[in-house]
Amino acid sequence: MKLIVGLGNPGKEYQNTRHNIGFNFLDCYVDYKNLGNDWTKKFDGLYMKVNIDGESVILLKPQTYMNLSGNSVRKVMDYYDIDVNDILVISDDLDLSIGNYKLKSKGSCGGHNGLRDIESKIGTTEYKRLKIGISNDKDKDTKDYVLGKLSKEDKNIIDNLYKDLCPVIDDYFDMNFTDLMNKYNHKNR
């Protein structure tokens, strides 16, 4: 069983903010796969248990706010006995330009509080990630920037990127992660 976690903050005030990239991409993937809209509230999150290409998958959007995302992840891991090797976390990344992404098999949180909390709750930095670039505006406070709305132009870039990333998730179920990184990480602009 795989667990795919999209990070974000719940509530209308956070819709279309840079920090909600993980939520938004999971929603895009659900639409792409025609999985319906059967999100269930449980595990301090919204989750959906689905079958994708013969693989049992939990899709999770923690509803604990970004800084406590690990609580929800840990509850799902414990309930479904999911190994850390079967987790993929999707998050925004300030160090990547808008329209770019990077798959990583492990590493530090890079200052991302959602990833930091997940690492704290699961006890390791060795979990898979899909990091989606939101650029960085050094003239703005980081908190204000990540919680700020995407411009129309940036939203169009991100929406087009989501379409390109859906096959990455499809391949995630069929490929060794090193091969997946080799296939996709060079495709950035």
Could you describe the 3D structure shown?
A seven-stranded mixed beta sheet has the order 2-3-4-1-5-7-6. The termini are far apart. It has a single domain (2-187), classed as Rossmann fold (3-Layer(aba) Sandwich), CATH 3.40.50.1470. It is built from six helices and seven strands. The protein has helices spanning 21-32, 69-80, 113-122, 142-146, 152-172, 177-184, and strands spanning 2-6, 40-42, 45-52, 55-62, 87-93, 101-104, 128-133. The chain has 189 residues and is an alpha/beta fold. The mean pLDDT is 94. It is globular.
The CATH topology name reads Rossmann fold
What class would the helix/strand composition place it in? Answer: alpha/beta
SSE arrangement, N to C: EHEEEHEEHEHHH
Main pleated sheet: 7 strands, mixed
Count of folded domains: 1
Query: Runs with pLDDT <50, length 5+?
Result: none
Using the coordinates above, name the CATH class: Alpha Beta
Rg calculated over all Cα atoms: 15 Å
Architecture, CATH level 2?
A: 3-Layer(aba) Sandwich
Number of helices: 6
Number of strands: 7
Average pLDDT across residues?
A: 94
Shape: globular
| CATH homologous superfamily grouping | Peptidyl-tRNA hydrolase
For the largest sheet, list the strands in their spatial order. Answer: 2-3-4-1-5-7-6
Distance between the termini: 33 Å
Q: Level of helix content?
A: 25-40%
Strand content of the residues, in percent?
Answer: 15-25%
